[in-house]
Each structure stands twice: as C-alpha cells, then as structure tokens.
C-alpha cells in the first residue's frame, strides 16, 4: 500500500505542470482476513493496561509558621490559576477558587476572582448567586446590593435574582427599598407569582391601598397611554374581586366583577366568572341579583359549557328559591314517584328513607317533620324483632335530624321518649335506641336523665349490650363504685358470660384491689355453666402469673386438670414450669410431660397424644440429655395407613376411605397387632420375590451358575 501511494504521489507531482488528472484508487488484491484479528475489546483492554499507575494521595502536612502558610497559599493559588488557564469556561473552577479565598477571609481576592469569572461568563446564574451570597454572608450589605443591581440589570428575566434581592431588603427592614425593587421588577411584566409576591408583601405591612393598585396593574398594565393586556385571564379577575371581598370592600368587589363582565363581553363568556359573581352576591344576601346573573349567563352561554353554572343555580334555588316553583321544576317528578310508592305499600321503609332524604335536601323543617310523622305512623303489624329492624331507623334518623339539622333538643328528647314507649320491651327491645338516648342526654349535659334512661332499660329489658354501654359510660366518668354495682347486676343477669367476669376482675386489678379480683375469678370458675371457660381459666392463670404467685398458678393448673385433660393444658403447664426458672425447673417440666403422657394413654384422640409427644421432644432437644432424647424417640408412635368402610345416610355402603392411624410402643395391647403387621409385611415381600422369580427363571439359573 505504501508503494502504491508513493507511486501515485510521484505521478501527480510529475503531471502538476501539465494537464491535471484524478488519481486512481488503489485496489486491494488480497481481500482475505488477516491472521491476527484485533477486536474493540482488545484495544480497550490494552489501553487500560497501559495507564499510568495511580499516585497515592499526598501526605497530610501541618502548617506551623507564616512562611509555610504563605508557601501553601502560593501553591494552591498556582493550582487554581493553572486550572483556570486550562479551561476558562468551566465556572466551577472559578467558584471553588473564590470559595477557597473566602475561607481564608481573603474577601478582596474572592471578589477579584468573581469579577474575573463574570468577565468570562456573565450569564451564569449560579455565579451571580454565589457572589451575592458571599457578600451577604460576610455582612457586606452595600456590596450585595451592588451585585444584585448588576444581576437584575444584566439578566432581568431570571426571577430568582429578584426574589433574593427583595427578600434581602425585607429582612434588613428596608421596606421602601424592597418596594422599589418590586416596582422595577413589575416593569418587566413578569409571571403571575411575581405579582402575587408583591401583593403579599404589601399585605404583610397592611398596605391594602397599595395592594389594590398592584391588582389593577396586574389586570391591566398601562404603558404609553395604551391598555396592554398582561394577564387577562378570568381567574385573575376573580382573585382581584375576592381580595376586595376579603377586606370587606364589597362595593369595590362588585365593581371588579362588573368590569370583568364588560371586559369579556358576550364573545368570550366564561361560566366560572358568573358562578363567582353569583356566589359573591349570594353572600351579600342579594338574591335577586344572583337570580339575574344566573339567568343572564344561562341565556348566553351554550348548554354544553354551562353544566357547572346550571348546577350552582339549582343549588341556589333549592336554598333561596320559592318552594312550589322548585318542586315543579326539579323535584316534582321524584316526589310524585315516592308518594306513589309509599301509598302502595306504607310499610316499604326503604321508600320512606329515599323520600325523607329528598325532602331533607330541599324543603323546610316543618315539611320534613310532617313526612317523618307520616313514616313513623306505619308501625309494623307483627311484634317480631325482624320486622322492626328497618322501622327503628326511621326513629333514629328523625331524632338525629332534630338534633343536628333542626337544633331542637326538646323535640329530640320527645322523639326518643316516644320511640321507647312504643317498643314492646317485654318481647324485645333495641339496645341501640336506649344507648343513643343516653348519649344524647350526655351531650346535653344532663347526666341524671342519661343514668335514669339506662337504669330503666336494665330494669325493663336487660341485655348484655345495655350493661356494657352503661358500664363504659360510668368508666369514662370514673365512677368505679357504680361500675362495681353494675357488674354485680350484670353477672346476676348473665352469670355464664365469661367476658364480664374477666372485665370485672381486670377493673379491680387496675384499681389495685388484688384480693377482690382473685375472689371474682374464684366465683367465676365456680359457676356451673360458662360460655367460654377456657378463656376464663387462661385469664385467671395470666392474672396469677402477673402477680408472680407461682404456687397459686400451679394449683390453678392442677384444678383445671381435674376438670379437663386437654393436651393444651398439659403443654401450657409444662411451658409455665419452664418459664418460671431455668435449670432447677427442668425436672419439674419433664415430670409434667410424663404425667401428661400417662394421662393421655386412655385418650381416644391420638392426634392430641402425638402433639404432646412432639412438644416433649422439642423440649428434650433443647434442654435434654442423650438418654432423655433416646427415651422420647422410643415413645414416638408409628404412622400407618388403614382403611375403613363408609356408610351413607340411608345405611347403604359408600365405599372405603383411607386414613392414618398411630401405633404407640407403650400400648401393650397393640403389640400383637404390631407383630402380626410385621409378619404380613414379610409375607408380602416373599410373595413379590417368588413372583419375580417365576417371571424370569433364566435369571435364577444364571445366578446359581455364577
């Protein structure tokens, strides 16, 4: 290739004086690939291997005198200057250099560096910010003002400079200077947030008139005697009007709305402007003005663009319009439908609920009361609770309406009392009604009436829910003696309720009367019939453990084991013995497991016995010796599969089902069966071997010859 290029070059030189010819492209005859191929990975690897070794970091040195310090400064400055000289456009090098000088309190040098950097790139925002922050940090206020002035003059569209400048002046207490900066800023017609910042600044100093003038410029900016639109958006007019309304300048606010309507005209009408205008007039109780505004807008704005307008107009008419007109326009159809439903079936309480919801939303209190009275007059004809469950909510809603909406406490009390007189308490009652009445009287700060109502309910128709609600009320009032009496009455009424016994004992425990709590537990476990005895015993045991009465806890476990031999009780006792002490209680824990194993031999549920042995084995694995581990392994049962015959409900055969059974080594009665089972397995194995020999007799001959 080199020869070809040289030949071509010589040829071109020889013909330079004569006719110029285009050189021919060299043709490669041998296009076969080279023997040694070089890949991109190989090139990168070789480049990496030929890199210079990384130099260790320079050792730390301590500067002890002025000469060393000056030498250090000289070297650092030379390094920074070299970096700047290499690439002047990297502003980070300038900033690091200036910050280093600032750290040495060399403010003049830092200023010089910043000024040199600004000569390189005066459009860099970070550079201006760092420069100004350095001056402010070193309390050079005039220098900082000078920098901010230069920054906003050079880059007036960078809002951050204006924000920082005004904030600095305000923090320095220079309100007039900050206002002057804002005025300079507003001449550039900035974004909306800038105007709001200026307005908020004036409002912080109670300058409402100045804020109003800013709003005027914010809406329409006058320059060269020509109205130039700055922010002619509807929301800006609305904000201006709400500002006037907030400061109780209602005439000004109305004038702003009128100007906005006139400004946008009929070509650019916006429903949000008219909704805001109407709500303003509604707050001023000018209902006729509101109606005129809504009608004017609805007549001129297309229907598809006025959904929100129509919705607000409907709400307004519901609140302030004529009742008959509203019923004819909006509610008449639905009201007629509900009237027909309740006439067809007066006991259709769901229809009454819907009707009442409609009536409550758009009519006066007397009409609502009339409908409620019609609804509650339809008493269920049968005195069964399932027929009264929906009906009772009519009374509840009626009482809540009188209390929350109508604010009539006397009528609310009458509603509750009438409902409670209507209920057939000898057959059934509704505890929620008594509790709601009591809670209402408490809200009215009439505690005696609330207690009287709950006492009457317990006397007429005692229920668990009533007792619980009454006790909870007295607990909130910290009337513990009353709580004790109520618990006594409750337990006389329902002595089988374990939860009540537990709560009573917990109350005495909280009050610090341990003996009373223990006596309550003793009375509870002595009851002939309990709904959840296991929960009660567990609570009693936990109580004794909390009191650290371990001997009493053991006695409780023994008393419980006299009543039941459940495996969980034995396991719990063993875990208790283990938790009381460490090494000295291990024999006691093992003794409990041995007693449980002996007691569980006669148990029909073999799974429970297996559960006990597994718990015992886990205990021995953690705390036992090799001998005890071997012993418990010998006690573990063998799991075998069995079949049993099933029968259908009519007595016919339903086939066979397979199940798993456990054979325990300790059960001597099962030993013959085990031997028989082993012999059966051996016989089956011999049968399989004989069948295999009969299928392949040559194999036996070959094996005998070998």
In short:
The protein is mainly alpha-helical. The protein contains 36 helices and four strands. The protein has a domain of 91 residues: Serine Threonine Protein Phosphatase 5, Tetratricopeptide repeat (Alpha Horseshoe).
Question: Helix and strand layout, with pairings?
Answer:
Layout: H1 2-14, H2 40-49, H3 66-86, H4 91-103, H5 107-120, H6 125-137, H7 141-154, H8 159-171, H9 175-186, H10 192-204, H11 208-219, E1 220-223, E2 226-229, H12 234-246, H13 250-264, H14 271-283, H15 287-300, H16 307-320, H17 323-344, H18 349-362, H19 365-376, H20 385-388, H21 392-405, H22 409-422, H23 431-443, H24 447-460, H25 464-476, H26 480-493, H27 498-510, H28 514-525, H29 533-546, H30 550-563, H31 567-580, H32 586-599, H33 606-623, H34 626-635, E3 638-647, E4 653-663, H35 671-695, H36 697-705
Antiparallel strand pairs: 1-2, 3-4
End-to-end distance, in Å? Answer: 81 Å
- Neighbour order of strands in the largest sheet: 1-2
CATH class of one domain: Mainly Alpha
DSSP helix fraction: 55-70%
Main sheet: strands, sense, barrel: 2 strands, antiparallel
CATH architecture of one domain: Alpha Horseshoe
Per CATH, what is the topology of one domain? Serine Threonine Protein Phosphatase 5, Tetratricopeptide repeat
What's the average pLDDT?
A: 77
> How many DSSP helices?
36
In terms of DSSP E residues, the strand content is: under 5%
């Amino acid at each position: 290739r080199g020869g070809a290029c040289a030949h071509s070059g010589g040829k071109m030189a020889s013909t330079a004086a004569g006719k110029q010819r285009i050189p021919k492209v060299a043709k490669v005859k041998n296009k076969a690939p080279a023997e040694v191929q070089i890949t991109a990975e190989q090139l990168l690897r070789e480049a990496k291997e030929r890199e210079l070794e990384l130099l260790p970091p320079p050792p730390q040195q301590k500067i002890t005198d002025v000469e060393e310090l000056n030498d250090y400064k000289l070297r650092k400055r030379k390094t920074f200057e070299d970096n700047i000289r290499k690439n002047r456009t990297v502003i980070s090098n300038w900033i690091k250099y200036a910050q280093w000088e600032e750290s040495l309190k060399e403010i003049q040098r830092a200023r010089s560096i910043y000024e040199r950097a600004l000569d390189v790139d005066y459009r860099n925002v970070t550079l201006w910010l760092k420069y100004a922050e350095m001056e402010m940090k070193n309390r050079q206020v005039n220098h900082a003002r000078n920098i901010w002035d230069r920054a906003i003059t050079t880059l007036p569209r960078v809002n951050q400079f204006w924000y920082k400048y005004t904030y600095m002046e305000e923090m320095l207490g220079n309100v007039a200077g900050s206002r002057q900066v804002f005025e300079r800023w507003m001449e550039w017609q900035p974004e909306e947030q800038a105007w709001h910042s200026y307005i908020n600044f004036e409002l912080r100093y109670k300058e409402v008139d100045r804020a109003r003038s800013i709003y005027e410029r914010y809406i329409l900016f006058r320059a060269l005697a020509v109205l130039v639109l700055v922010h002619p958006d509807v929301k800006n007019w609305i904000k201006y009007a709400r500002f006037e309304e907030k400061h109780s300048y209602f005439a000004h606010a109305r004038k702003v709305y009128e100007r906005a309507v006139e400004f946008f005209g009929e070509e650019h009408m916006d429903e949000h402007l008219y909704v805001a205008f109407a709500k303003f007039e509604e707050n001023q109780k000018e209902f006729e003005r509101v109606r005129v505004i809504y009608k004017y807008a609805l007549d001129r704005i297309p229907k598809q663009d006025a959904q929100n307008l129509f919705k607000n107009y409907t709400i307004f008419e519901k609140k302030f319009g004529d009742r008959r007109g509203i019923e004819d326009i909006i509610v008449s159809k639905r009201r007629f439908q509900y009237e027909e439903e309740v006439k067809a079936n007066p006991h259709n309480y769901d229809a009454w609920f819907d009707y009442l919801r409609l009536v409550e939303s758009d009519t006066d209190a007397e009409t609502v009361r009339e409908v409620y009275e019609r609804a509650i007059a339809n008493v269920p004809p049968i005195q069964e609770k399932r027929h009264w469950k929906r009906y009772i909510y009519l009374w509840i809603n009626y009482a809540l309406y009188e209390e929350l909406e109508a604010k009539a406490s006397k009528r609310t009390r009458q509603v509750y009392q009438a409902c409670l007189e209507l209920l057939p308490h000898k057959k059934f009652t509704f505890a929620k009604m008594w509790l709601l009445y009591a809670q209402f009287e408490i809200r009215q700060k009439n505690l005696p009436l609330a207690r009287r109502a709950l006492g009457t309910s317990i006397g007429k128709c005692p229920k668990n829910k009533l007792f619980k609600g009454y006790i909870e009320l007295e607990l909130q009032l910290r009337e513990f003696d009353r709580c004790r009496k109520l618990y006594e009455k409750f337990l006389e009424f329902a002595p089988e309720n374990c939860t009540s016994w537990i709560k009573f004992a917990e109350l005495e425990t909280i009050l610090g009367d341990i003996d009373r709590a223990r006596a309550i537990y003793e009375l509870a476990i002595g009851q002939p019939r309990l709904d959840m005895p296991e929960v009660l015993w567990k609570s009693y045991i936990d109580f004794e453990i909390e009191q650290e009465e371990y001997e009493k806890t053991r006695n409780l476990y023994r008393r419980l084991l006299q009543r039941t031999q459940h495996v969980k009780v034995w396991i719990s006792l063993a875990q208790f013995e283990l938790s009381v002490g460490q090494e000295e209680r291990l024999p006691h824990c093992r003794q409990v497991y041995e007693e449980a194993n002996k007691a569980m031999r006669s148990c029909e549920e073999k799974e429970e016995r297996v559960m006990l042995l597994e718990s015992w084995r886990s205990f021995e694995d953690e705390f036992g010796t090799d001998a005890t581990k071997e012993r418990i392994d010998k006690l573990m049962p063998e799991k075998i599969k069995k079949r049993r015959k099933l029968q259908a409900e009519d007595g016919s055969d339903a086939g066979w089902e397979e199940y798993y059974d456990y054979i325990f080594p300790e059960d001597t009665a099962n030993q013959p069966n085990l031997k028989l089972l082993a012999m059966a397995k051996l016989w089956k194995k011999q049968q399989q071997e004989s069948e295999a020999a009969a299928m392949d007799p040559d194999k036996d001959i070959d094996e005998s010859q070998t």
